Protein backbone atom coordinates (compact mmCIF):
# COMPACT_ATOMS: atom_id res chain seq x y z
CA UNK A 1 0.00 0.00 0.00
CA UNK A 2 1.29 3.46 -0.80
CA UNK A 3 1.87 5.32 2.44
CA UNK A 4 0.29 8.74 2.56
CA UNK A 5 -0.05 11.14 5.46
CA UNK A 6 -3.72 10.15 5.69
CA UNK A 7 -2.95 6.52 6.56
CA UNK A 8 -0.08 7.44 8.86
CA UNK A 9 -1.76 9.31 11.75
CA UNK A 10 1.56 9.49 13.61
CA UNK A 11 2.56 12.11 11.03
CA UNK A 12 -0.53 14.26 11.29
CA UNK A 13 -1.38 14.16 15.01
CA UNK A 14 -0.72 17.71 16.31
CA UNK A 15 1.99 18.43 18.90
CA UNK A 16 1.11 17.62 22.46
CA UNK A 17 -0.35 20.70 24.16
CA UNK A 18 0.87 19.88 27.65
CA UNK A 19 4.50 19.70 26.53
CA UNK A 20 4.14 22.70 24.23
CA UNK A 21 2.90 24.71 27.23
CA UNK A 22 5.66 23.48 29.55
CA UNK A 23 8.31 24.43 26.98
CA UNK A 24 6.67 27.74 26.17
CA UNK A 25 6.94 28.66 29.88
CA UNK A 26 10.72 28.22 29.47
CA UNK A 27 10.79 30.38 26.32
CA UNK A 28 11.04 27.35 24.00
CA UNK A 29 8.82 26.21 21.15
CA UNK A 30 7.73 22.63 20.39
CA UNK A 31 7.03 21.97 16.70
CA UNK A 32 6.67 19.24 14.12
CA UNK A 33 9.27 19.46 11.37
CA UNK A 34 8.03 19.40 7.80
CA UNK A 35 10.27 16.68 6.38
CA UNK A 36 9.55 17.85 2.84
CA UNK A 37 11.19 21.19 3.70
CA UNK A 38 14.83 20.29 2.99
CA UNK A 39 16.34 23.27 4.82
CA UNK A 40 14.35 22.71 8.01
CA UNK A 41 14.88 18.96 7.90
CA UNK A 42 18.63 19.35 7.35
CA UNK A 43 18.85 21.58 10.45
CA UNK A 44 17.06 18.89 12.41
CA UNK A 45 19.39 16.16 11.03
CA UNK A 46 22.45 18.23 11.94
CA UNK A 47 21.13 18.78 15.47
CA UNK A 48 20.43 15.06 15.85
CA UNK A 49 23.96 14.16 14.74
CA UNK A 50 25.48 16.82 17.03
CA UNK A 51 23.48 15.44 19.96
CA UNK A 52 25.20 12.06 19.54
CA UNK A 53 28.59 13.77 19.13
CA UNK A 54 28.65 13.03 15.40
CA UNK A 55 30.05 15.24 12.67
CA UNK A 56 28.23 17.36 10.12
CA UNK A 57 26.78 15.07 7.45
CA UNK A 58 27.88 15.51 3.85
CA UNK A 59 25.36 16.68 1.26
CA UNK A 60 25.17 13.11 -0.06
CA UNK A 61 24.50 11.67 3.42
CA UNK A 62 21.84 14.32 4.09
CA UNK A 63 20.07 13.49 0.85
CA UNK A 64 20.00 9.83 1.82
CA UNK A 65 18.79 10.56 5.36
CA UNK A 66 16.04 12.86 4.12
CA UNK A 67 14.85 10.15 1.77
CA UNK A 68 14.97 7.34 4.34
CA UNK A 69 13.67 9.24 7.40
CA UNK A 70 10.92 11.26 5.78
CA UNK A 71 8.11 9.09 7.14
CA UNK A 72 9.02 9.46 10.78
CA UNK A 73 7.15 11.89 12.98
CA UNK A 74 9.91 14.45 13.41
CA UNK A 75 9.70 16.80 16.35
CA UNK A 76 11.94 19.70 17.32
CA UNK A 77 12.29 22.18 20.15
CA UNK A 78 13.41 25.66 19.07
CA UNK A 79 14.84 28.54 21.04
CA UNK A 80 13.65 31.48 18.95
CA UNK A 81 15.84 34.08 20.65
CA UNK A 82 19.27 32.55 20.03
CA UNK A 83 21.21 33.61 16.89
CA UNK A 84 21.06 30.06 15.47
CA UNK A 85 17.32 29.84 16.06
CA UNK A 86 16.70 27.61 13.00
CA UNK A 87 18.79 24.89 14.63
CA UNK A 88 16.71 22.77 17.04
CA UNK A 89 17.83 22.57 20.66
CA UNK A 90 15.85 19.36 21.08
CA UNK A 91 15.05 16.50 18.69
CA UNK A 92 13.05 13.30 18.64
CA UNK A 93 11.48 11.15 15.96
CA UNK A 94 9.02 8.28 16.06
CA UNK A 95 6.99 5.87 13.99
CA UNK A 96 4.69 2.91 14.56
CA UNK A 97 6.74 -0.27 14.30
CA UNK A 98 5.24 -3.75 14.34
CA UNK A 99 6.95 -5.42 17.34
CA UNK A 100 7.04 -9.22 17.30
CA UNK A 101 5.65 -10.67 20.54
CA UNK A 102 5.71 -14.23 21.93
CA UNK A 103 3.66 -16.49 19.66
CA UNK A 104 4.63 -14.59 16.51
CA UNK A 105 1.94 -11.89 16.33
CA UNK A 106 2.96 -8.24 16.22
CA UNK A 107 1.83 -5.40 18.44
CA UNK A 108 1.94 -1.81 17.11
CA UNK A 109 4.76 -0.13 19.01
CA UNK A 110 5.57 3.57 19.17
CA UNK A 111 9.27 3.50 18.32
CA UNK A 112 11.15 6.53 19.66
CA UNK A 113 14.56 7.54 18.38
CA UNK A 114 16.95 10.48 18.07
CA UNK A 115 16.24 11.95 21.50
CA UNK A 116 18.79 14.75 21.84
CA UNK A 117 19.01 18.02 23.70
CA UNK A 118 21.70 20.55 22.81
CA UNK A 119 24.33 20.70 25.55
CA UNK A 120 23.61 24.44 25.72
CA UNK A 121 20.05 23.63 26.85
CA UNK A 122 20.48 20.46 28.92
CA UNK A 123 18.81 19.71 32.26
CA UNK A 124 16.02 22.22 31.85
CA UNK A 125 13.33 19.63 31.25
CA UNK A 126 13.47 19.56 27.44
CA UNK A 127 13.80 15.76 27.24
CA UNK A 128 11.05 15.44 29.84
CA UNK A 129 8.76 17.49 27.61
CA UNK A 130 9.72 15.47 24.52
CA UNK A 131 9.20 12.08 26.16
CA UNK A 132 5.92 13.14 27.77
CA UNK A 133 4.77 14.36 24.40
CA UNK A 134 5.73 11.13 22.62
CA UNK A 135 3.94 8.96 25.17
CA UNK A 136 0.78 11.08 25.22
CA UNK A 137 0.60 11.18 21.41
CA UNK A 138 1.10 7.42 21.18
CA UNK A 139 -1.54 6.84 23.85
CA UNK A 140 -3.98 9.20 22.15
CA UNK A 141 -3.54 7.22 18.92
CA UNK A 142 -4.23 3.95 20.75
CA UNK A 143 -0.74 2.51 20.33
CA UNK A 144 -0.41 0.01 23.20
CA UNK A 145 3.37 0.04 23.79
CA UNK A 146 6.30 2.40 23.29
CA UNK A 147 9.81 1.15 22.64
CA UNK A 148 13.34 2.47 22.36
CA UNK A 149 17.00 1.50 22.38
CA UNK A 150 19.05 3.67 24.68
CA UNK A 151 22.40 5.43 24.78
CA UNK A 152 22.47 5.31 28.59
CA UNK A 153 20.45 2.95 30.74
CA UNK A 154 19.79 5.49 33.52
CA UNK A 155 17.50 7.77 31.53
CA UNK A 156 14.21 6.10 30.61
CA UNK A 157 13.03 4.31 33.76
CA UNK A 158 11.46 7.57 34.96
CA UNK A 159 9.00 7.40 32.06
CA UNK A 160 7.93 3.80 32.76
CA UNK A 161 10.26 1.93 30.41
CA UNK A 162 11.86 -1.33 31.50
CA UNK A 163 14.65 -3.31 29.79
CA UNK A 164 12.90 -6.13 27.93
CA UNK A 165 15.60 -7.77 25.80
CA UNK A 166 19.32 -8.20 26.36
CA UNK A 167 22.02 -8.40 23.71
CA UNK A 168 25.34 -10.22 23.76
CA UNK A 169 28.67 -9.14 22.32
CA UNK A 170 31.17 -11.79 21.21
CA UNK A 171 34.88 -11.95 20.40
CA UNK A 172 36.03 -15.13 18.70
CA UNK A 173 39.71 -16.06 18.59
CA UNK A 174 39.67 -17.67 15.18
CA UNK A 175 43.24 -18.93 15.45
CA UNK A 176 42.12 -20.91 18.50
CA UNK A 177 38.74 -22.34 17.55
CA UNK A 178 38.03 -25.00 14.96
CA UNK A 179 34.65 -25.54 13.37
CA UNK A 180 32.94 -28.55 14.96
CA UNK A 181 29.39 -27.64 13.95
CA UNK A 182 27.41 -29.57 11.38
CA UNK A 183 28.52 -29.75 7.78
CA UNK A 184 27.17 -26.68 6.08
CA UNK A 185 25.09 -26.83 2.95
CA UNK A 186 23.82 -24.17 0.60
CA UNK A 187 25.73 -21.50 -1.31
CA UNK A 188 27.74 -18.53 -0.12
CA UNK A 189 28.62 -15.69 -2.48
CA UNK A 190 29.66 -12.05 -2.40
CA UNK A 191 27.09 -9.50 -3.43
CA UNK A 192 26.42 -5.81 -2.85
CA UNK A 193 23.45 -3.95 -1.37
CA UNK A 194 22.20 -2.61 -4.71
CA UNK A 195 21.89 -6.13 -6.16
CA UNK A 196 20.80 -7.84 -2.99
CA UNK A 197 18.25 -5.35 -1.59
CA UNK A 198 15.09 -7.24 -2.51
CA UNK A 199 16.33 -10.64 -1.33
CA UNK A 200 17.93 -9.04 1.74
CA UNK A 201 14.66 -7.39 2.71
CA UNK A 202 12.89 -10.74 2.38
CA UNK A 203 15.49 -12.34 4.69
CA UNK A 204 15.18 -9.49 7.20
CA UNK A 205 11.39 -9.82 7.20
CA UNK A 206 11.75 -13.49 8.15
CA UNK A 207 14.35 -12.77 10.82
CA UNK A 208 12.26 -10.03 12.40
CA UNK A 209 9.05 -12.08 12.35
CA UNK A 210 10.83 -15.07 13.85
CA UNK A 211 11.66 -13.76 17.30
CA UNK A 212 9.83 -11.81 20.01
CA UNK A 213 11.54 -8.46 20.49
CA UNK A 214 12.45 -7.84 16.86
CA UNK A 215 10.77 -4.99 14.98
CA UNK A 216 9.70 -4.80 11.35
CA UNK A 217 12.30 -3.17 9.17
CA UNK A 218 12.04 0.24 7.62
CA UNK A 219 14.16 1.13 4.57
CA UNK A 220 16.44 3.19 6.83
CA UNK A 221 17.08 0.29 9.21
CA UNK A 222 17.46 -2.29 6.43
CA UNK A 223 19.99 -0.15 4.57
CA UNK A 224 22.17 0.07 7.67
CA UNK A 225 22.12 -3.69 8.14
CA UNK A 226 22.96 -4.65 4.56
CA UNK A 227 25.71 -2.17 4.09
CA UNK A 228 27.11 1.16 5.09
CA UNK A 229 24.99 4.26 4.99
CA UNK A 230 26.45 7.09 2.94
CA UNK A 231 29.28 8.91 4.67
CA UNK A 232 29.93 6.22 7.27
CA UNK A 233 33.59 5.77 8.19
CA UNK A 234 35.35 3.16 6.05
CA UNK A 235 32.23 2.73 3.91
CA UNK A 236 34.32 1.37 1.05
CA UNK A 237 35.54 -1.53 3.22
CA UNK A 238 32.13 -3.12 3.81
CA UNK A 239 31.58 -6.58 2.33
CA UNK A 240 28.28 -8.37 1.93
CA UNK A 241 28.00 -12.17 1.67
CA UNK A 242 24.71 -13.91 1.00
CA UNK A 243 23.66 -17.41 1.94
CA UNK A 244 21.17 -19.22 -0.29
CA UNK A 245 19.72 -22.66 0.41
CA UNK A 246 20.63 -25.56 -1.90
CA UNK A 247 17.32 -24.82 -3.67
CA UNK A 248 18.45 -21.21 -4.21
CA UNK A 249 16.24 -19.61 -1.56
CA UNK A 250 17.79 -16.49 0.09
CA UNK A 251 18.10 -17.34 3.80
CA UNK A 252 20.77 -15.12 5.29
CA UNK A 253 23.58 -12.65 4.89
CA UNK A 254 26.47 -11.13 6.73
CA UNK A 255 27.83 -7.62 6.24
CA UNK A 256 31.24 -6.93 7.73
CA UNK A 257 34.50 -5.11 7.36
CA UNK A 258 38.09 -6.15 8.03
CA UNK A 259 40.19 -3.99 10.36
CA UNK A 260 43.97 -3.92 10.01
CA UNK A 261 46.25 -4.82 12.88
CA UNK A 262 50.06 -4.69 13.12
CA UNK A 263 50.20 -8.25 11.81
CA UNK A 264 48.79 -8.76 8.30
CA UNK A 265 47.82 -12.35 9.18
CA UNK A 266 45.70 -11.16 12.11
CA UNK A 267 42.96 -8.84 10.89
CA UNK A 268 39.84 -8.31 13.00
CA UNK A 269 36.48 -8.79 11.37
CA UNK A 270 33.85 -6.32 12.60
CA UNK A 271 30.47 -7.81 11.83
CA UNK A 272 27.98 -5.11 10.91
CA UNK A 273 25.05 -7.52 10.84
CA UNK A 274 24.49 -11.26 10.62
CA UNK A 275 21.00 -12.22 9.44
CA UNK A 276 19.87 -15.83 9.43
CA UNK A 277 16.33 -16.92 8.71
CA UNK A 278 17.25 -20.61 9.21
CA UNK A 279 19.70 -22.61 11.32
CA UNK A 280 21.45 -23.68 8.11
CA UNK A 281 22.07 -20.06 7.20
CA UNK A 282 23.29 -19.30 10.72
CA UNK A 283 25.80 -22.15 10.77
CA UNK A 284 27.05 -21.52 7.24
CA UNK A 285 27.60 -17.81 7.92
CA UNK A 286 29.32 -18.41 11.25
CA UNK A 287 31.58 -20.98 9.63
CA UNK A 288 32.41 -18.54 6.84
CA UNK A 289 33.44 -15.88 9.38
CA UNK A 290 35.43 -18.24 11.57
CA UNK A 291 37.42 -19.71 8.70
CA UNK A 292 38.44 -16.46 6.98
CA UNK A 293 42.14 -16.38 6.14
CA UNK A 294 44.36 -13.53 7.42
CA UNK A 295 41.99 -13.06 10.35
CA UNK A 296 42.57 -13.61 14.08
CA UNK A 297 39.40 -12.25 15.61
CA UNK A 298 35.72 -11.91 14.81
CA UNK A 299 33.81 -9.28 16.77
CA UNK A 300 30.03 -9.21 16.73
CA UNK A 301 27.38 -7.41 18.78
CA UNK A 302 23.59 -7.47 19.30
CA UNK A 303 23.33 -11.24 19.27
CA UNK A 304 20.78 -13.00 21.47
CA UNK A 305 21.24 -14.49 24.93
CA UNK A 306 20.86 -17.93 23.34
CA UNK A 307 23.45 -17.56 20.57
CA UNK A 308 24.51 -21.14 19.70
CA UNK A 309 28.10 -20.24 18.79
CA UNK A 310 29.86 -22.03 21.70
CA UNK A 311 28.36 -25.32 20.55
CA UNK A 312 29.73 -24.89 17.03
CA UNK A 313 33.44 -24.66 17.87
CA UNK A 314 36.16 -26.90 19.29
CA UNK A 315 37.13 -24.59 22.16
CA UNK A 316 34.30 -22.95 23.99
CA UNK A 317 36.60 -20.34 25.60
CA UNK A 318 37.80 -19.29 22.19
CA UNK A 319 34.34 -17.79 21.59
CA UNK A 320 33.86 -15.39 24.46
CA UNK A 321 30.89 -13.30 25.47
CA UNK A 322 32.54 -9.95 26.12
CA UNK A 323 29.38 -8.08 27.02
CA UNK A 324 25.72 -8.52 27.95
CA UNK A 325 23.66 -5.36 27.83
CA UNK A 326 20.09 -4.16 28.09
CA UNK A 327 18.89 -3.49 24.57
CA UNK A 328 15.18 -2.98 23.84
CA UNK A 329 13.23 -1.01 26.46
CA UNK A 330 9.46 -1.39 26.59
CA UNK A 331 6.83 0.96 28.03
CA UNK A 332 3.34 -0.51 28.25
CA UNK A 333 0.67 2.11 27.51
CA UNK A 334 -2.36 -0.20 27.40
CA UNK A 335 -2.16 -3.30 29.57
CA UNK A 336 -5.16 -5.24 28.14
CA UNK A 337 -4.18 -4.60 24.50
CA UNK A 338 -0.54 -5.50 25.12
CA UNK A 339 -1.16 -8.64 27.17
CA UNK A 340 -3.83 -10.07 24.88
CA UNK A 341 -1.70 -9.72 21.74
CA UNK A 342 1.07 -12.04 22.93
CA UNK A 343 0.73 -15.78 23.48
CA UNK A 344 1.74 -17.70 26.61
CA UNK A 345 3.45 -21.07 26.95
CA UNK A 346 1.50 -22.08 30.06
CA UNK A 347 -2.08 -21.56 31.11
CA UNK A 348 -2.93 -19.82 34.37
CA UNK A 349 -4.58 -16.89 36.04
CA UNK A 350 -3.13 -13.90 37.86
CA UNK A 351 -4.47 -10.67 39.26
CA UNK A 352 -1.87 -8.00 38.49
CA UNK A 353 -1.76 -4.64 40.25
CA UNK A 354 0.14 -2.33 37.91
CA UNK A 355 1.54 0.97 39.22
CA UNK A 356 1.95 3.65 36.57
CA UNK A 357 3.11 7.03 37.91
CA UNK A 358 2.27 8.75 34.61
CA UNK A 359 -1.32 7.50 34.73
CA UNK A 360 -1.59 5.81 31.31
CA UNK A 361 -2.49 2.26 32.25
CA UNK A 362 -2.20 1.67 36.00
CA UNK A 363 -4.82 -0.48 37.69
CA UNK A 364 -5.79 -3.98 38.68
CA UNK A 365 -6.25 -6.57 35.97
CA UNK A 366 -7.21 -10.24 35.93
CA UNK A 367 -5.12 -12.04 33.31
CA UNK A 368 -6.53 -15.42 32.34
CA UNK A 369 -4.60 -17.64 29.94
CA UNK A 370 -6.28 -20.63 28.37
CA UNK A 371 -4.78 -22.56 25.48
CA UNK A 372 -2.00 -19.96 25.39
CA UNK A 373 -4.47 -17.15 24.64
CA UNK A 374 -5.12 -14.38 27.18
CA UNK A 375 -8.14 -12.44 28.25
CA UNK A 376 -7.74 -9.40 30.49
CA UNK A 377 -10.39 -7.66 32.54
CA UNK A 378 -10.24 -5.04 35.26
CA UNK A 379 -11.02 -6.28 38.76
CA UNK A 380 -11.14 -5.17 42.39
CA UNK A 381 -9.96 -8.57 43.70
CA UNK A 382 -6.80 -8.83 45.78
CA UNK A 383 -3.69 -8.91 43.59
CA UNK A 384 -1.47 -11.99 43.22
CA UNK A 385 1.36 -9.78 41.96
CA UNK A 386 1.98 -6.04 42.35
CA UNK A 387 4.49 -4.48 39.99
CA UNK A 388 5.52 -1.25 38.32
CA UNK A 389 4.67 -0.65 34.69
CA UNK A 390 8.45 -0.78 34.09
CA UNK A 391 8.60 -4.31 35.52
CA UNK A 392 5.66 -5.38 33.36
CA UNK A 393 7.56 -4.02 30.34
CA UNK A 394 10.60 -6.06 31.38
CA UNK A 395 8.72 -9.38 31.47
CA UNK A 396 6.34 -8.64 28.60
CA UNK A 397 8.37 -10.18 25.78
CA UNK A 398 9.30 -13.31 27.74
CA UNK A 399 12.57 -12.19 29.34
CA UNK A 400 13.65 -13.93 32.50
CA UNK A 401 13.37 -10.86 34.77
CA UNK A 402 10.69 -11.74 37.34
CA UNK A 403 12.98 -13.22 39.98
CA UNK A 404 15.50 -10.37 39.87
CA UNK A 405 12.73 -7.78 39.98
CA UNK A 406 11.22 -9.60 42.94
CA UNK A 407 14.54 -9.61 44.82
CA UNK A 408 14.77 -5.87 44.08
CA UNK A 409 11.26 -5.29 45.44
CA UNK A 410 9.93 -4.08 42.07
CA UNK A 411 7.63 -7.10 41.94
CA UNK A 412 5.84 -8.22 45.09
CA UNK A 413 3.61 -11.24 45.61
CA UNK A 414 3.84 -14.44 43.61
CA UNK A 415 6.84 -13.65 41.37
CA UNK A 416 7.25 -17.36 40.55
CA UNK A 417 3.74 -17.43 39.08
CA UNK A 418 4.48 -14.26 37.10
CA UNK A 419 7.63 -15.90 35.78
CA UNK A 420 5.83 -19.13 34.86
CA UNK A 421 3.21 -17.26 32.88
CA UNK A 422 5.33 -14.64 31.11
CA UNK A 423 8.73 -16.24 30.49
CA UNK A 424 9.34 -17.98 27.16
CA UNK A 425 11.64 -20.93 26.43
CA UNK A 426 13.41 -18.88 23.75
CA UNK A 427 14.57 -15.52 25.10
CA UNK A 428 13.38 -12.42 23.28
CA UNK A 429 15.95 -10.61 21.17
CA UNK A 430 16.32 -7.38 19.25
CA UNK A 431 19.24 -7.63 16.85
CA UNK A 432 19.43 -4.02 15.68
CA UNK A 433 19.63 -0.49 17.07
CA UNK A 434 17.03 2.07 16.14
C1 LIG B 1 15.94 6.73 22.48
C2 LIG B 1 17.19 7.58 22.32
O1 LIG B 1 17.27 8.36 21.43
S1 LIG B 1 18.46 7.35 23.42
C3 LIG B 1 19.52 8.76 23.23
C4 LIG B 1 19.50 9.74 24.35
N1 LIG B 1 20.31 10.88 23.94
C5 LIG B 1 21.63 11.01 24.17
O2 LIG B 1 22.27 10.18 24.81
C6 LIG B 1 22.32 12.21 23.56
C7 LIG B 1 23.11 13.01 24.61
N2 LIG B 1 22.27 13.42 25.73
C8 LIG B 1 21.29 14.34 25.59
O3 LIG B 1 21.00 14.83 24.51
C9 LIG B 1 20.53 14.78 26.84
O4 LIG B 1 21.42 14.78 27.92
C10 LIG B 1 19.31 13.90 27.19
C11 LIG B 1 18.36 13.85 26.00
C12 LIG B 1 19.73 12.49 27.55
C13 LIG B 1 18.59 14.51 28.41
O5 LIG B 1 18.06 15.77 28.06
P1 LIG B 1 17.72 16.88 29.14
O6 LIG B 1 16.83 17.86 28.49
O7 LIG B 1 18.96 17.38 29.77
O8 LIG B 1 16.89 16.05 30.22
P2 LIG B 1 15.87 16.66 31.29
O9 LIG B 1 16.34 18.01 31.73
O10 LIG B 1 14.48 16.58 30.79
O11 LIG B 1 16.08 15.62 32.46
C14 LIG B 1 15.09 14.72 32.90
C15 LIG B 1 15.60 13.88 34.01
O12 LIG B 1 16.51 12.92 33.49
C16 LIG B 1 17.78 13.03 34.14
N3 LIG B 1 18.78 12.81 33.12
C17 LIG B 1 18.78 13.29 31.87
N4 LIG B 1 19.83 12.84 31.21
C18 LIG B 1 20.51 12.04 32.04
C19 LIG B 1 21.71 11.30 31.91
N5 LIG B 1 22.40 11.31 30.78
N6 LIG B 1 22.10 10.58 32.97
C20 LIG B 1 21.39 10.60 34.12
N7 LIG B 1 20.25 11.30 34.30
C21 LIG B 1 19.83 12.01 33.25
C22 LIG B 1 17.82 14.45 34.66
O13 LIG B 1 18.70 14.58 35.73
C23 LIG B 1 16.38 14.64 35.09
O14 LIG B 1 16.17 13.97 36.31
P3 LIG B 1 15.00 14.37 37.31
O15 LIG B 1 13.71 14.13 36.56
O16 LIG B 1 15.20 13.45 38.43
O17 LIG B 1 15.23 15.82 37.60
TrEMBL record:
Keywords for the protein's UniProt record, in alphabetical order: Acyltransferase, Transferase
Family membership: Belongs to the acetyltransferase Eis family.
Organism name: Leifsonia poae
Polar residues: compositionally biased ranges: 1-11
Residues given in the record as acetyl-CoA binding sites: 115-117, 123-128, 151-152
One example GO MF annotation: aminoglycoside N-acetyltransferase activity
Region (Disordered): 1-20
Protein name: UPF0256 protein
Annotated active site: 156, 434
InterPro entries, per the entry: Acetyltransf_17, Acetyltransferase_Eis, Acyl_CoA_acyltransferase, Eis_dom, GNAT_dom, NAcTrfase_Eis, SCP2_sterol-bd_dom_sf
Recorded superkingdom: Bacteria
Subunit (UniProt): Homohexamer; trimer of dimers.
Domain N-acetyltransferase stretches: 28-182
An annotated GO BP: aminoglycoside antibiotic catabolic process
